[in-house]
Target: GTPase Era
Amino acid sequence: MLLMPFHRLIILIFGLSLILGLIIWLVNSIYQLYIQISFTAPLLANILIFLITGISGFLIYALVHYYNKLFFRKSNFKHKINHLPKFKNRKQNSLEDVRIVLNQVKSIKDKVAKQSLLKRSKEIKNDLDRQEFKIIIFGKGSAGKTSLVNSLVGEVIGQVNSSMGTTKIGISYRIKLEELSNKILITDTPGILEMGSGGEKREMLAKQLSIQSDLLLFVVDNDLSESEYQFLKFINSFGKKVLLIFNKTDLYSKKDKIKILNSLRNKIKEFTFIEDIILTAANPQNRQLKARQKVNLSADINILTKKIVMIIQTEGQELITKNILIKSQRLGEEMSQIINKQRNKQSNKIINQYQWMTAGIVIVNPLPFFDMLATAAVNTQMIVEIGQVYEYKLSSDEGKELALSLGKTLIGLQITKGAVEILGRILQLNISSYLVGKVLQGLTVAYLTRIAGQSFIEYFYHNQSWGQGGIEEVVQRNFQLNRQDVFLKTFIEDAIFKIVNPLTDNLKQINKKKLDKDEW
Model:
């Protein structure tokens, strides 16, 4: 196990020595004062001793407290995954997340997605009792990742050269260090940030593998490029512990090495601790002297090895449990996305059914004073059915009340008028003038029914809430989405097929019967 850094040890010793000296001085002064006071006021003398003892204890406590606060504070960057429960509760929370997934996965209709979620849930449950510590090494292709793994494992395990894309897939190796009871699984990932589709696939694989790790080693051989910085930022969003490995330091002068190190410290200060930047020379190059003598250099990874040992000894089990909790949370989020996508699809089928139903009702029985309030009764059942998709049971009265409130909003925002104008212009270009007046009213109702239905999808998705902007903002947003050319083209094509063509055929039959009757 590593000792405390020297500068911190000096500060601690100096602080304790200073307080100890003050205490000795105070004790001597208090003793003299006590002798003088005790003869005339014994009670006052005892109170004085009590106060001084308390002050001395407080000074010692303050030194230790602020020392820890100064040197062992948490990183100040914030994101959701860092706000994890304490170590003792993480295993329980992971199990609870898995139970939720297993309960809700039954409702998923996609068999492939269901099997994938069940398999990963089982893996997480099995992972809860593992003792193996997972380390993932990644970086760009020429940064020396494989050389670093070679040095850690102690034998050559992969091709080592400067070409990009040497490691095609993530390859794992088990090692055992004498200082640790845990076995270590080290995975050498594909190089990131390479050109072409092959490079993109390897980068995606590296990202997937990084999620599985307890500790990440991000390897660079120079200052961080913008693309490396963005990738590191992406990895940091998982809440993983990361060591930044500055490799190939044997290739730099002392001046250049310090310059790069200072730049790295400045760039990653929002992600991790400065002391988590480790300098290595995993595959040092032989140096040629003037007398043509070669100096063979051995790999310099001792600091990295000691750092890994210290991390596993001090926080290894916590990192394992944290990693499992992160994976269980991500699994839950993925399941929620699948379920919401499924619910959205089901809800849109309901909307599609009711929008043409309302259009047919209005065309067959034209409403003398058309507006959304007049079709609220029809939309009531649509709202109830969408609520059922999102597992909310609404009564007919509740559905009607929601339909009326949304109808008033549509009128208040003049969306009804806007829909008539938009559809009127398009219909004039697509159907005969004779049918425009008859069809316009029905299609406008269908169009507004769609806006209403999609607004209620948002309402139920957000747990029966319209959000901060209220119902007006939701309705206005859906109106803007449904007035785009791509949607309107599809909507009119469907309307012609489902409404206009049947209506035209029906009118032809009526006219034919009338004509036949007149001839008869």
User: Anything to note?
Assistant: The radius of gyration is 36 Å. Confidence is low (pLDDT under 50) at residues 70-87, 159-166, 289-296. Residues 302-364 form the longest helix (63 residues).
